[in-house]
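Hi support team,

I've been running sequence recovery on a batch of backbones for a student project. Most finish fine, but this one hangs at about 90% for roughly twenty minutes before it completes. I'm not sure whether the input is malformed or the queue is just slow. I've pasted the structure tokens below so you can try to reproduce it. Let me know if you need the job ID as well.

Thanks,
M.K.
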């Protein structure tokens, strides 16, 4: 038995809606444990009933069914709500429940008479969202293995990518195998359709820039070729491409200079071009060179924030920290999120708890919106834990870049 109970994914919104949905499921079960009101369940073989597409995801067959779904709803719901907020989460949950419900009623044969219920389809959709939006984060799990006269209990941290992929692929394979054998497994079909809905919704929100994964989503990870099992490009080819692109940008800058444009205008346009083309190395190199060449040059906040996001996505932690520190020192209205992100990079990625705590000290809880207070407290706790463990830190100052 595997019980997911928590995550290390950043949570920027309190899980109010997640808890609300869990409470609603419990109340519905308590009100009608015998399932007398079948009109709210998903009717099979009886045509389309749109209201049931939404209502069936709050109804559960038994206490085991309910408790299992509540555990998974909590584990994946807090991640999704942490990125979308309460209203966004509720909308996503309903969409991910309605989508498989509608497909099942439309596709299941009229010979399959009965009713289906449960939040599993929507939960598999949430699982797919987490797989796309936070593949590198971990789930804290409790694993219980029973054997002859012995029980093993341990608490591993499982990457969301592998956890979600295992459950989704397992269900798809099982549904496919049973379908070949002529057996219709409606529950598994709902899981598969829910996961499909989650993939489609997750990709759509990413493409529309309606969710900020800070460069940690699956598409960014694959594009940048991070460590681990994902592809890492060779050093020669990107370096050669970078040189060619840098030469091209330099030629454009020289032409602009000859045309009489101000150097800072040319520099900003060149930096923007590198960022738009997702040339992170070129953007960072140009940023550094221009900062040395044009004393006092400060790119506008939007460009500097985009550079920070690109460096974080590329896992260039030292460089990202330097650019963030420069942004905080020079911006007229620095974003609290950037200061919190700097503290996170210092503590989690660079293991510099003293520098992280100094950064957080300049960000009192009273200046933060409620959704960032918990994140701040978690970082403080982690930094203090690292200090107690004796993490060596020679210099607690962050050098602006």
């Amino acid at each position: 038995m595997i019980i997911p109970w928590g995550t290390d994914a950043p949570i920027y919104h309190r899980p109010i809606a997640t808890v609300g949905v869990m409470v609603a499921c419990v109340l519905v079960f308590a009100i009608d444990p015998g399932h007398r009101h079948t009109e709210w369940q998903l009717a099979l073989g009886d045509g389309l009933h749109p209201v049931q597409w939404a209502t069936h995801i709050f109804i559960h067959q038994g206490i085991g069914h309910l408790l299992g779904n509540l555990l998974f709803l909590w584990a994946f719901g807090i991640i999704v709500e942490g990125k979308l907020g309460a209203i966004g989460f509720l909308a996503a949950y309903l969409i991910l429940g309605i989508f498989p419900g509608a497909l099942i009623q439309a596709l299941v044969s009229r010979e399959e008479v009965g009713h289906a219920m449960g939040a599993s389809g929507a939960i598999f959709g949430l699982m797919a969202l987490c797989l796309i939006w936070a593949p590198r984060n971990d789930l804290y799990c409790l694993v219980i293995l029973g054997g002859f006269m012995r029980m093993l209990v341990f608490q591993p941290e499982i990457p969301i990518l592998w956890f979600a992929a295992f459950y989704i692929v397992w269900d798809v394979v099982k549904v496919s195998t049973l379908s070949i054998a002529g057996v219709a497994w409606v529950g598994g079909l709902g899981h598969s359709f829910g996961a499909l809905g989650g993939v489609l919704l997750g990709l759509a929100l990413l493409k529309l820039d309606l969710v900020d994964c800070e460069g940690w989503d699956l598409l960014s990870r694959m594009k940048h070729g991070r460590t681990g099992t994902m592809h890492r490009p060779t050093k020669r080819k990107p370096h050669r491409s970078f040189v060619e692109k840098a030469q091209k940008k330099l030629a454009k800058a020289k032409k602009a200079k000859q045309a009489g444009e101000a150097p800072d205008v040319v520099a900003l346009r060149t930096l923007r071009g590198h960022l738009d083309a997702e040339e992170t190395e070129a953007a960072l190199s140009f940023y550094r060179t221009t900062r040395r060449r044009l004393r006092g040059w400060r790119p506008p906040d939007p460009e500097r924030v985009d550079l920070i996001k690109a460096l974080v996505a590329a896992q260039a932690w030292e460089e990202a920290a330097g650019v963030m520190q420069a942004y905080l020192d020079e911006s007229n209205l620095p974003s609290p999120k950037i200061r919190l992100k700097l503290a996170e990079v210092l503590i989690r990625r660079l293991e510099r708890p003293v520098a992280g705590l100094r950064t957080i000290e300049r960000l009192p809880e009273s200046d933060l919106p409620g959704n960032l207070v918990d994140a701040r407290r978690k970082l403080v706790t982690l930094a203090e834990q690292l200090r107690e463990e004796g993490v060596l830190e020679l210099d607690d100052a962050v050098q602006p870049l």
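--
Follow-up from support: It reproduced on our side and the slowdown came from queue contention, not your input. Confidence is low (pLDDT under 50) at residues 226-245. No action needed from you.
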